[in-house]
Structures are given as C-alpha cells and as structure tokens.
C-alpha cells in the first residue's frame, strides 16, 4: 500500500515558546557554562568576603542546578538570567532585541529614523 500524498497536511498555526525553541550550539553552551562557573566563583568569593556565606551558598546551589539543567536539557527555568553568556556577549553589552531583526531605511522620508526632528 502506498500513500499518494506523503507530505503531512499544512499546519494552520504553531506556537513557539522561546525556552524550548531557542537553539544554543553545543560548543557555545560549553563556553557559556564555563563562563557562568567563573562568574559564580568570583561572586561567591565577594559574598563570603562580605560575611554573607549563606547567600553565597544559596547562589552556588541554584546556579549549579541551573548549569546542570543547561548541560542536560539545553534550558533551565530562568535561563534569561544567563542570556549574556548563552549569547556570547561581553559584560555590559546590550541584549539582542526585536528591533535588531527589523530593517529600517532611515533615508525614507515617510519614516523618519531614530533621533530625527
């Protein structure tokens, strides 16, 4: 028996949830988890130096659990807190926004560019 139409029927609507459909390449994920670990050690040392050992312990436990989930599943609850590392951005660099994906033609007189009078 042969199906005359092997293609699946068209899909009318699909919902894409960011945490499940944002793809971080394995090599970038490996670099990100290493950077998260370095930053964690620095921050925990600061907290302990300030006499805030309990906060350092809680931060360490939570971050290590998140890193384990990132390595195992590729995402974790609150992954947006690690977006700088996952995106490969430098400290202080702004995150990517929707406007970065839109093409604005500032020479079009009907649509003035940002900062115009």
Helix content bin: 40-55%
What's the average pLDDT? 84
Number of strands: 0
Regions with little confidence, pLDDT below 50 for 5+ residues: none
Judged by helices, strands and strand pairing, the structural class is: mainly alpha
GO cellular component, one term: excinuclease repair complex
GO molecular function: ATP binding; ATP hydrolysis activity; DNA binding
InterPro entries: P-loop_NTPase, UvrB
Structure in words:
With 117 residues, this protein is mainly α. The protein has a domain at 24-88. 46% of the residues lie in helices and 0% in strands. It contains four helices and no strands. The protein has helices spanning 18-21, 26-49, 53-73, 83-87. Helix 2 (26-49) packs antiparallel against helix 3. The radius of gyration is 22 Å and the shape is flat. The mean pLDDT is 84.
Structural descriptors:
4 helices; single chain; DNA binding; UvrB; mainly alpha; ATP binding; 117 residues
Summarize the structure.
This protein is an all-alpha fold and 117 residues long.
List the helices and strands and how they pair.
Layout: H1 18-21, H2 26-49, H3 53-73, H4 83-87
């Amino acid at each position: 028996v042969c199906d005359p139409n092997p293609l699946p029927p068209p899909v009318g609507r699909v919902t894409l949830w960011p945490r499940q459909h944002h793809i971080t390449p394995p090599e970038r994920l490996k670099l990100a988890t290493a950077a998260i670990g370095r930053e964690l050690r620095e921050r925990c040392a600061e907290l302990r130096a300030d006499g805030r050992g309990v906060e350092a312990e809680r931060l360490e436990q939570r971050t290590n659990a998140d890193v384990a989930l990132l390595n195992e599943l590729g995402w974790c609850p609150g992954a947006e807190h690690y977006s700088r590392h996952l995106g490969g951005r430098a400290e202080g660099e702004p995150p990517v926004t929707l406007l970065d994906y839109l093409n604005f033609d500032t020479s079009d007189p009907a649509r003035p560019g940002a900062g115009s009078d």
